[in-house]
Design a protein that fits this description.
A mainly alpha (713); B alpha/beta (256); C alpha/beta (323); A: 713 residues; mainly alpha; five-stranded parallel β-sheet; four-stranded parallel β-sheet; C: 323 residues; alpha/beta; 7 helices; globular
Chain lengths: 713, 256, 323
């Protein structure tokens, strides 16, 4: 029976060398590597702030399996997914293979017969897989050169290193096979038909056989290859903590210690040091934020997905996270020394490592975090930076004017809080005052839906729909304030708390079963960040059902409380709002609604969690636009216009409606696309034509889309 | 340079103003009061001067009503002291003469090199607080100031005239300046710092005795102007209005 | 001058300012109604050349001195106080300007007289003089009597037109020497700082597209620029827009900026507060776009539309280009 021969082809003095290398040098390298790694990663908790992340170990292990082993997020893109899987799993398998070989050599001999052959087959298969993946990687990084990949020497060297390691392994195997084929006594149990259990090695062996090399020569070359292989492996191990492959160790750590218990829509409370909020220096980061820097693989998927980056603004989520890494590496030890000496001035992070404009360009859409294969949370770091910048008065005037209005009037428009319910005067019925009487559904309207004159009709349509569905609903009227979602993400934590407090006080005086809103931003913060302190403290979303209007319409349509009177037959595409989709996983309800209305839905290439943000979130709608090459909203409507039959661009957010209506105009697509809120479509199809519902707004001079029955005025 | 900033609170014009039927004057019952915008500029100028040449900045106001938040905000921005003057009728919309009288009394006990205040306020009717205080204290007054620079024996101030013209004046000794605009827009201070000020700092209160105002301006009535009565309003949506305007401009020969 | 109506003349850089003529117009009404004389008090250096413009007054009193060559609040206050203490007038009119407001309060206190600020018009009814003032950003009109024996008032434009105060007669001129010592002064004029040049002079443009807070942010100014280009005019703005640095100070229309009288003044998102109105209400054709139908600007604009500025402007530009 054939069995694995330990240190095949290595005899006498060389065998001793091999033993020393295998049991002395390499373990020593591993030890050195671990020490180096420890020296690097201990900066995380020595410099950074504590943050407990040890809860729910079984879940954490499951995530490790899912994201670090199965690498599901890497697979979001097929080519790199295939490539990386090949490289990573190649190495997993080789590592396991080596471990099994060691057991076989020193503990219990089990690699014999079928088991041995199966073992070799797997290793061979993964060798081929690996080498093919390495080619894919090289081609991608050096020939295709996508913008998001860093093209520098270290990456090239690393790829060459691992390629040569695996190739040398294949070489040694092929030389052994060729030698054994010539002299079968070199591996007892060998038979020619077993050769194809190692197909790759056997194929390469044909080359040596074909060249007519003698067995002694092949054994010499085998020795050289073996030593080369061992030497390069030692090099790889030693350089692991410093090179681009460190992510092999740090990324799984990042995955294991990723945030578990809170939804992405819940920011951590602001950190304050001596009254200054936010992150001023490295030590104000949590250790997990510092870990993220070292876990980053520089894949750049976040950068590709970032709407700010795409529009030409100076933000790259990748560069931001790498700035954390670089700062920690270059200033971490220095900072520790200064701190132990009690120095007051520590090297600042904001404006030095990251420019102000980069921090302010973010729309907080989380496309970056959604793409990141190693679960880095970029937005948290950006918000922490903003908290600091705002406290230092390093924010543009437009933003601070809006914040001043929010503080004084509770809305960013600078209009009186008494005018919040003015939109209701366009209705021919009175909406219940939830402050005065109990209601089943409390409708939190939101700033834009309340105050923007262009959106009043949509808000009124929603009211009519709720009434037509016999919903028992009411408003907070003047007591409502901006929910504070974007105030918080603009870095004004104190103002967020103030607004939330006012809203909660108003809510606590009301009686209701559930809350509905048409605004995903309000939805997000009400559900995930508001704390209901009547009784036990719980997040509002855990205490009450909180629905977005799309979810409510979905329920009402399915229950038959709303029925399409004139189904539309129009062709639509749907834009997933960031705070409804990526943040809160509501993708299907709006789509069900559209189908129930009779629409034919055509998805844009970037849909669901890949949707491109309109650019208004995170307070951006209050800030100066800056120098943009192409607005995200314009990019998005062009994406929709490229879908041949699509007539309507459907949104489910008042800010989206504002941004996209504008973008359609500035992109010159007024005769091509009509932007509609989901509410409008539901109203047009489900409300009787005479209920004050206007015909679908047509672009100037354009006929109503074919197939659309125009509701009589 | 120790600076006192005089702050007045005025009706917030975001709200509609109403006339009290009984008195025929402005109905103050539901008025929201906010700091006079130009007084905020005065505070900003004071803080900029403090940053450049040190000193103590004191904010002085009357107990007009809900003033505490604004005072704590001033402290959070960098003011060293905030003083609220209490007295009879201060929350009834006192006249500028009365306000100036109260300020002058308090200023008698304060140490200062410079007094800054807004050059005017939206609800001024009987003079300007800064100028009135200056005369009561016998100090020089310059209004419409947009820049203050300390100089050898006093200050150099930049005064704004129409058409973008500015003049430089040299002023010696303590003076009162009416600020038209600070050199930078008034800074924004984050709410958490204001909250911290509320927790850790105090607003001082000084009781003001009787304020003599020699001459009041009699107001017989206040009324809301009839707006929109003059302009001919063009109806329709934006597109229709645009077309009507083009027609109008053609009719008038303003465009071809 | 006892019992007379007196106007404190304002000059700037060699010209008598428009507000002086507005004051003369108002002063004339008062003087005629109270059956008294109208005097103009002219302080400065080498001021004789201005006297012939002040014909609306019955008499011009000139006081010349080096210290009065350029406006100096302290010097002017001293002189005016001395003059009025001696010749107690019935009403003193000052401009509601950087000049007049520096003097008004001090003068009133020293004369122990009440002062009303922000007056637009006056009327006399059975020997009782009344003022009408516009306050609170143009949202409130206050009226009342002008108390005897002496009362001061600062005047804003908007009630009377400057032309109403230009007289054709030559007034009697009296020259006095300064009635009080003028040194030592704690306030001294140093120099003027010229406004930046090289930019458009909006006072010379026939068509102005003017933006206010309603333009919402700096980026939308480009829309106004396009509209101005389509009209063959220039962009100007109100104070909030200039304070935010969305437009340079040379584009400011209003009391502190330029007074303009274009053929067309298109006011976009401007409320029409008095300080701005002062700069443009004499334009030939004022078209105001403001979503608030109660905006004060509609009180003196010729045409208006309560539509959204950001919606209208591109459509208007497009409609003009179609021609």
């Amino acid at each position: 029976m054939i069995e694995r021969i330990n240190f095949w082809g290595l005899h006498g003095g060389w065998r001793t060398v091999a033993v020393i290398v295998t049991y002395g040098v390499l373990p020593l390298c591993a030890l050195v590597m671990l020490v180096r790694l420890y020296l690097r990663i201990r900066l995380w908790w020595r410099v950074g702030r504590p943050e407990p992340r040890w809860d729910q170990p079984p879940t954490r292990v499951k995530r490790l399996l899912k994201y670090a082993l199965a690498q599901v997020k890497v697979w979001r893109q097929l080519y790199p997914g295939l490539m990386h899987f090949g490289l990573a799993w190649g190495f997993f398998v080789f590592f396991i293979g080596t471990a099994l070989a060691t057991i076989d050599a020193d503990i219990v001999k089990f690699l014999r017969g079928r088991l041995y052959l199966g073992y070799k087959l797997v290793l061979d298969a993964f060798t081929v897989f690996f080498l093919a993946a390495a080619f894919l990687a090289g081609y991608r990084r050096f020939v295709q050169r996508p913008e998001r990949l860093t093209l520098t020497a270290p990456f090239a060297l690393t790829l060459v290193l691992i390629f040569v390691i695996v190739l040398s392994g294949l070489m040694t195997e092929s030389l052994r096979l060729a030698s054994v084929a010539r002299q079968p006594e070199l591996q007892p149990g060998w038979q020619p038909e077993l050769a194809w259990w190692t197909p790759a090695g056997w194929a390469l062996a044909q080359v040596w056989l074909g060249l007519g090399l003698s067995v002694p020569v092949m054994i010499q070359v085998h020795l050289a290859m073996w030593l080369l292989h061992a030497g390069l492996v030692a090099l790889l191990i030693l350089t692991l903590p410093a090179g681009s492959l460190v992510h092999v160790l740090t990324a799984p750590l990042n995955v294991f210690f990723s945030r578990l218990d809170s939804p992405p829509g819940r920011l951590a409370p602001a950190f304050q040091r001596d009254g200054t909020p936010g992150v001023a220096t490295l030590r104000d980061f949590t250790w997990t934020q510092l870990m993220a820097g070292d876990a980053c693989t520089e894949c750049g998927r976040c950068q590709d997905a970032c709407p700010a980056h795409g529009s030409g603004l100076p933000l790259s989520p990748k560069e931001l996270i790498l700035a954390v890494r670089n700062e920690l590496a270059s200033h971490g030890p220095e900072l520790l020394k200064l701190r132990s000496q009690g120095a007051a001035q520590l090297p600042p992070f904001a404006s030095v490592a990251v420019e102000d404009a980069a921090a302010w360009a973010c729309t907080t859409c989380r496309a970056c975090a959604a793409e990141c294969p190693v679960l880095i949370e970029h937005v948290d770091t950006i918000v922490d930076l903003r908290r600091y910048l705002l406290a230092q008065q390093r924010a543009d005037n437009q933003l601070t004017t809006a914040l001043g209005n929010l503080r004084r009037y509770g809305n960013s428009f600078g209009k009186s809080d008494k005018q919040r319910a003015k939109w209701t005067t366009g209705l021919d019925f009175k909406i219940k005052d939830a402050r005065r009487e109990p209601v089943h559904t409390l409708w939190f309207v939101g700033d834009y839906a309340s105050y923007s004159p262009a959106l009043a009709e949509v808000t009124q349509a929603a009211a009519r729909l709720f009434r037509a569905a016999d919903l028992d609903f009411g408003l907070l009227y003047d007591a409502e304030r901006n929910a504070g979602n974007d105030v918080r993400r603009a870095g004004e934590e104190g103002l967020f708390e103030l607004l939330a407090q006012k809203n909660l006080t108003a809510l606590q005086k009301c009686q209701f079963e559930q809350i509905v809103t048409t605004d995903p931003h309000s939805y997000n913060t009400l559900k995930n960040e508001y704390v209901w302190t009547n009784g036990t403290a719980a997040f509002l979303g855990d205490r009450f059902r909180i629905l977005h209007a799309a979810e409510l319409f979905d329920e009402l349509l399915r229950a038959g409380r709303l029925t399409p009177q004139q189904p539309t037959h129009c062709v639509v595409t749907y834009h997933d709002p960031c705070y409804l989709g990526r943040y809160n996983n509501v993708y299907d309800a709006p789509r069900r609604v559209l189908r129930a209305l009779g629409c034919r839905l055509v998805e844009m290439p970037r849909h669901r969690d890949r949707a491109l943000c309109c650019g208004a979130g995170g307070g951006r709608i209050w800030m100066e636009e800056g120098q943009v090459r192409e607005r995200p909203a314009e990019n998005r409507v062009r994406e929709a216009a490229a879908l041949p039959d699509v007539q309507y661009f459907v949104v489910a957010c008042p800010k989206d409606l504002t941004m996209y209506r504008d973008a359609v105009k500035t992109a010159g697509l007024e005769n091509r696309l009509i932007v509609k809120d989901l509410v409008e479509l539901v109203a047009e199809t489900c409300l009787p034509a005479t209920a004050g519902v206007t015909a679908p707004a047509t672009a100037a001079g354009q006929q109503a889309p074919p197939g659309q029955t125009v509701a009589a005025q | 340079m120790d600076i006192v900033v005089l702050m007045k609170f005025v009706p917030d014009l975001v709200e509609d103003l109403e006339i009290d039927a009984a008195t025929g004057l402005l109905d103050r019952t539901f008025l929201r009061l906010i700091p006079n915008e130009l007084d905020e500029h005065a505070l900003e100028e004071a803080l900029l001067l403090k940053e450049r040449c040190g000193g103590v900045v004191t904010v002085l106001t009357l107990d007009f009503g809900d003033v505490d938040e604004a005072l704590f905000t001033a402290i959070a921005k960098g003011a060293d002291r905030a003083i609220k003057l209490t007295g009879e009728g201060f929350d009834q919309g006192p006249s500028n003469q009365r306000i100036a009288g109260a300020f002058s009394q308090a200023l008698g006990d304060l140490r200062f090199d410079l007094i800054l205040t807004g050059t005017q306020a939206v609800d001024d009717l009987d003079g300007f607080v800064g100028a009135l205080v200056a005369d009561r204290l016998g100090l020089p007054y310059v209004g419409y100031v947009t820049k203050v620079t300390p100089a050898d024996a006093g200050l150099v101030v930049q005064k704004e005239y129409p058409g973008g013209l500015n003049a430089e004046l040299a002023v010696t000794g303590p003076a009162v300046l009416g600020i038209q605009a600070a050199e930078k827009p008034p800074r924004y201070v984050v709410t958490s710092k204001v909250m911290e000020a509320m927790r850790t700092r105090k607003i001082e209160e000084i009781a003001i005795g009787e304020v003599t105002t020699e001459v009041e301006v009699p107001v017989s009535a206040m009324a809301l102007p009839e707006s929109g009565s003059h302009a001919e309003m063009l109806e329709g949506d934006a597109q229709q209005v645009a077309e009507k305007i083009v027609t109008l401009l053609r009719e008038r020969g303003i465009v071809a | 001058m006892c019992g007379e109506v007196c106007v404190v003349v304002e000059t700037l850089r060699g010209k008598v300012t428009d507000i002086t003529f507005v004051m003369l117009a108002g002063g004339r009404r008062l003087a005629d109604g109270l059956q008294t004389k109208l005097t103009a008090l002219l302080l400065g250096q080498d001021v004789q050349k201005y006297t012939r413009e002040l014909g609306a007054a019955d008499r011009v009193v000139c006081i010349e001195h080096d210290c009065l060559a350029e406006f100096n609040p302290e010097a002017y206050l001293r002189v005016a106080t001395a003059v009025f203490e001696q010749h107690k007038p019935r009403v003193v009119l000052l401009g509601h300007t950087a000049t007049g407001t520096d003097l008004a309060c001090g003068l009133a206190r020293r004369l122990r007289a009440p002062i009303v600020t922000g007056c637009r018009t006056f009327s006399v009814d059975n020997g009782t003089a009344h003022y009408s003032a516009l306050i609170c950003g143009g949202k409130l009109i206050a009226t009342g009597p002008l108390p005897e024996p002496t009362c001061l008032a600062t005047m804003m434009s908007g009630g009377y037109k400057a032309d109403e105060g230009r007289g054709t007669r030559t007034p009697a001129v009296e020259t006095l020497s300064p009635p009080t010592a003028l040194d030592p002064l704690r306030t001294n004029f140093k120099q003027y700082i010229e406004p930046p040049t090289g930019d458009v002079d909006i006072a010379k443009e026939a068509i102005l597209v003017s933006v206010g807070r309603g333009i919402q942010n700096k980026d939308n100014i480009a829309l106004a620029e396009e509209l101005a280009a389509a009209l063959g005019g220039a962009v100007s703005g109100s104070r909030p827009v200039i304070d935010q640095e969305w437009l340079p100070t040379t584009r400011l229309v209003g009391k502190s900026g330029k007074q303009v009288k274009p053929k067309l003044y298109l006011a976009l998102g401007i409320s029409g507060a008095p300080e701005h109105a002062e700069g443009m209400r004499e334009a030939e054709l004022i078209v105001a776009i403001n979503r608030d139908p109660k905006a004060p600007i509609y009180g003196f604009a010729h045409y208006g539309a309560a539509v959204d500025v950001l919606e209208l402007v591109p459509k208007l530009t497009a409609a003009l280009r179609k021609a």
